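Title: Prediction job returns without error message
Component: structure pipeline
Severity: low
Priority: P3
Assignee: unassigned

Description:
Job completed but the reporter wants confirmation the result is attached to the right record. Sequence as submitted:
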Amino acid sequence: TYVELSTGARGVVIKTDPDNPKNPFLKMITDPEGNPYPELPIYQPLPGDEVRIKRPLTTPEKKEVEKIFRV
């Protein structure tokens, strides 16, 4: 699932955490300004973090992200 974080950064869920199912591991694709990351960092928002998954991306948004970098 492609998602947008509360910062505006975008990523894709790559793994769930059984101990923290609401906070899956993400492969980050773009920074908050929409710039692609040169490497795809792995990030896991944790309970209490200000950065949270805001929403899933729409199909058109997903296609735009996929143009930037194929995951």
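Comment from assignee: result matches the submitted record. The mean pLDDT is 91.
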